[in-house]
From TrEMBL:
The lineage of its organism: Eukaryota, Fungi, Dikarya, Basidiomycota, Pucciniomycotina. PANTHER family: TPR DOMAIN PROTEIN (AFU_ORTHOLOGUE AFUA_5G12710) (PTHR47643). InterPro entries: Gramillin-biosynth_MTr (IPR053209), TPR-like_helical_dom_sf (IPR011990). Signal peptide: none annotated. Residues 1-25 are annotated as: Disordered. Residues 8-17 have a biased composition (Basic and acidic residues). It comes from Rhodotorula toruloides. This is TPR and SET domain containing protein.
Amino acid sequence: MSASDRSQLIKDMESSRNKASKLFDGPGKSEGLELLILGAPRFCSTRALHELKPITFKDMRVTKTHKGRVLLLRIVSVPCHIVGISFAAEDTNDRVEHIAIYNFPLHGIRTGPDLAALFPVGTLCAFREPSFRDPENRHAKAIGNGYFAQRKDYLALQRYSKGLACCSSPEQRLVYYLNRAQANLRLSNFGGAWRDASAVLSFLKAGISRRPPRAEVKATVRRARALEGLRHFQRALEEYMRVLALDVDEPVGHSGRTRTEKWGYQSEMGDYDWPELHKLAIGRTVPFGLPIGD
């Protein structure tokens, strides 16, 4: 992190502290119920410090809980508390990151002088078996799905790719690949769609237990469509046949099989319905893309 980035992070924490103070203690503070709905309990280490080996930010992986490791930090900004306690801290390599502590018993202490006294700048901290979460990309899947629903396919592709770059969980990576394959298809990036769908099928073959519903059918359909787009009709037909072996009632499998059988025959025999092709070509602005074999 550059000196300017470090300074900006500390300024951001100061701004968050000021906003939190106004929210809870200012003239317009909320008097209603503060409600936060969370999922399953978060991991909390019970290991003794002497059993743990040091780790720094550069060796941590996003979304992973680093079992058997301890992160040594020094607080470099004022703290604030909204949902969890937040502050900027540097590791032993002087790298600064945003830190969040959840479920710490404050017993009524809020953002302000008391919290700053509890977590003063310069305090040394030891975080046992920490997790590293990227704030920008932790919602990459949801943001990508939103872009995809709006047919903003390049932005969806970008978000799914960012999610993959920051994700180590095979189950999550499978979902990103599956979604990115569909975005690639809509952009006619057939080679990319084939690679992504194949990655999903490789994960499934490896025996991942947690998977989206019908993941194998979806991935096989997307690989078939990618091969169809690449004009590999025989291979596409084989994939559509695999789709039907997985689900005999899958309509995309039936239509894909009929289409690729027809196009494969046209490519091999050169037998085309020329009057019909003339009708299909009327109004098209490009000389390619007709639904026929090569």
